[in-house]
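Below is how a single chain appears once it has passed through the pipeline. First comes the sequence as given, then the structure the pipeline wrote out for it. We keep one example in the README because the format questions we get most often are answered faster by looking than by reading.
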Amino acid sequence: MTPPDTDSAVSRPRVEGDRELEILHAALDVLADAGYDRLTMDAVATAAKASKATLYRRWSTKQALVVDAVCSQKAAAPVPDTGNLRDDLIEMYTGLGGMRDPRGLAVLAAVVTAMSRDEEFAETYRCDFIAPKIAASRVIFDRARERGEVADGVDIPLLAGALPGIVLHRVFLLGEEATPELIEHVIDQIIIPATTCPHLPTASE
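Resulting structure:
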């Protein structure tokens, strides 16, 4: 679908502030209720009580609108720096407990599905949403290595992705809740012990 190409659409002011948030929240509602495939600019415009031209003045594509909507759910938080790895990870990831919210789960499920079907959306989502989170996680583990909490040879990129991966597996495949207790248990039983393991050769090596 291509955006309207009219002089009036270009000359009017861009959507911002509270009105922008209203549209983003409407987009999340449509995403949760209908899924990514059936989300259209028309559907979001109807839910937000706005014109389609209004949406296109701010978002040129459906992909851009959905990514902004997902990113709007939580403001970017500063990278924790408590002085030890365990507390940094707990502070950073206990927010995953929000996945107990049915609407939040529906949105996340729609996003995962969309990434497998829409490469343009997947690339935008990885760049705008996932990449900053990976960078923040790397900062935490790099600081821990400098403090001597992470052994030389530990694969930090692999280890940094293990915590959210395990939690998401238990939520989506096992039907558990992402409680703070679950997150702390994964940190204490898997992540922290793994930081002290030196590099081990793989079967191919």
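The chain has a mean pLDDT of 85.

See the next section for the split statistics.
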